[in-house]
Design brief:
The chain is an all-alpha fold. It is about 80% helix and about 0% strand. The structure holds tryptophan.
Amino acid sequence: MADRGHWGSKLGFVLAAAGSAVGLGNIWKFPYITGENGGGAFVLIYLLCIVVVGLPVMTAEILLGRATQKSPVGAVKALGGGFWVVFGGLGVLGGFVILSYYSVVAGWAMHYTYLALSGQIVGLGPEGVEPLFGSLFTSNGLNLFWHALFMIVTVAVVWGGVNKGIERWARILMPTLFGLMIILLVNSFTMSGFGEAFDFIFGFHTEALTAAGVLEALGHAFFTLSLGMGAMLTYGSYLDRNDDIVVSAITISILDTVIALTACMVLFPIIFSYGMEPASGPGLVFVSIPIAMSQMHGGTFFAFIFFALLVFAALTSAISLLEVVTSYLIDEKGWLRHKATVFAGVVIALIGIPSALSGGTYLFGDGFAGVFGRNWFDTFDYLASNWILPLGGLGISMFTAWRVDDAIRHREFLDGSRLGVFYKGWLVLLKYVVPVGIVLVFLHAIGVI
Ligand code: TRP
């Protein structure tokens, strides 16, 4: 059998997996949903979801991957098969769907990095910066250009393989990302709005928290930890038997959470210092922040650092999404890595074109929106976050808890583990708590509750 790839070291795995987890979800989405849900209490609920739902599922995914040394479809086949294989297939589908629009948003971050670098953010001033996003959003040429470029870079990394591509780039990009984050944090610390921001994020404000917000926190815990479609499973399949699964899952989750909270502590002081709205939605990062930075001392420098960081975060996540599809073609179809990577990359780039065109409304216009009440871009995001990931997560946790043979599961949990005592507790969470949580998110998504 051809060598399907292997991590060079345990640190390499943790950095690559943290790279998958830390992405647009942490730096773009988490701050704006925190803003919309009023901060404090929402953050606390989110932390609870990470521990009670995210951590057990991440442990399950890494365990299934390491036990079988296979990507999602092969892993499920090896440990029980039957109808459960559907969930493996759902993961591969998720890779296509998520990466196709993720790449478009990453392209926006690239465009803003370019705008910052060419001095335009500060040069245009607040009034000039405000319409920038609108003109980017509606420019087919710009969207296609950045989308294509981002996909080419992603393919180039995955082409290099597990050790020489994914791990090598994680070792460069992740420390860079941490460093850039610290520079931005130090700057925000000195701003007048820091105190207000700190209170907003960590003060226990329950006023703005709704049931919908709680479910949004739970859904986001999935997305931000890259769970529900076998990305962590795939990365786990390149691990050695003696690596510690539980400690790895905890480390990855902590890194992801620290980055998400730091992103808030970077962004909200800027928002409050310049009198902008914390609840400005998806435009928080692409509209409000550039407007504030255009007036900031050293704005060109900080805008460049921030958007470059956003691109790096998106890249290490996109890599994991492409790797799920690539490894499926390698493991199940017997393709060589180079062929698999290019094929998957090209197909995903093509699927992403409608998302890139005129804010995703170009091809289907109102006709498509009429059916789903959304444009192409929103439809994909909605499909992934509300259907594919919760369903996939439900499948993975139920499969692990109810179908996989206990002897195999228990031995795998203990192998290389320093935290073997948590086996029973983990299983209880996986059997009962996780499925109930996901079903609630699901019912909410389809409007039942
Ligand atoms: N976790 C990433 C983020 O927060 C996105 C991501 C990468 C992802 N791989 C995934 C989400 C797999 C779900 C499944 O931006």
